[in-house]
Amino acid sequence: MQALRDYSIFLFYFLTAMMCTVAAASEITSSSSVSDQEAACKKEDLQSCYFLAERYLLGLGVSHNKEMAISLLNKACDRGHGKSCLKLGGWYVATITFGDSKNKTPEDSVIIGLFDKSCELGEMEGCAYMGTFYVEGAGVDKDISKSISYFQKACDGGYAEVCSGLGMMLIKGSTVPGDEKRGSAVPVDKKRGQASLQKGCDLGDKKACKYLDEK
């Protein structure tokens, strides 16, 4: 098992999360004013709490305040807002990745738990990350069976790229299709793999469609 701090691919996760946040900035600011979001959050409107947290992280209409953002995300996550759990996990991973010693982070198990909870609450990105954690043994013991289970859940939830990746894993019998020496062995299941690729194609992943056309 690798510690999250030693797992460099999380830089990619952080950049992905940041791009999603920037893309959502207009939604955050146009949905309602800061005061309205504050009032709604106090009344347990968890989406408003999430938007407020994003504002404090980005300085959108308020001063930057990481502590306030984390507090709001914790509140919303604890009450069952999956996207807040996912965002909070991503924030902690970003802090680890960039080694900011001024910001303390929880134990790896707590951070992993945030992604797992986001998956349970319907955030398919969280399920995809959990699958990757178990593939790589990042913050958890490597477990291919569990990784496939999480990837399948993300695929069933409509995450096209995960369907395609899972399909290739099952067909090639490796966690790194095309580079089996670097990857870990996966039980080959070509029928299930083809079905997963077909779903990825149906959901709009062009790579899956191209692979199916070549067969």
UniProtKB/TrEMBL annotation:
InterPro entries: HcpB-like (IPR040239), Sel1-like (IPR006597), TPR-like_helical_dom_sf (IPR011990). This is Beta-lactamase. PANTHER family: CYTOCHROME C OXIDASE ASSEMBLY FACTOR 7. Residues 1-25 form the signal peptide. Keywords: Repeat, Signal. Belongs to the hcp beta-lactamase family.
